[in-house]
Structures are given as C-alpha cells and as structure tokens.
Design brief:
Helix content is 61%, strand content 0%. The chain has a domain of 36 residues. It is built from three helices and no strands. The chain has 54 residues and is mainly alpha-helical.
Length: 54
C-alpha cells in the first residue's frame, strides 16, 4: 500500500528540478541512457520505507 502513495507524492508534490536533481550528462551516446531523477527519488523513498518496515 505504501508504494502508490510515494509515487503519487513525488509526481504531484515534488519538483525534482527545483531540488537540483538532474541527469549526469556524460559522453552522450556511450552506454545506457541516464535514469530519470524523479524515478531515482521514488526508488530511494520506497527503499527507505521497506527497510524501515523490517
């Protein structure tokens, strides 16, 4: 039940650009494209909630 609340919160309430989150840039076409900073924030918050529940 916690995951949808986190996704909803980040999508509606958090401006990741305003917080300074951005893609790392890099070599352009080398390797895999960078992950979306909003998705990384969601993953971090969700992981913290799971670890806290243990």
């Amino acid at each position: 039940m916690g995951r949808p609340r986190i996704l909803h919160y980040v999508d509606l309430m958090v401006d990741v650009d305003e917080l300074g989150f951005k893609n790392g840039g890099g070599a352009g076409d080398a390797g895999q494209p960078a992950y979306d900073p909003a998705n990384l924030l969601k993953l971090d918050l969700y992981g913290d909630e799971i670890v806290g529940a243990c």
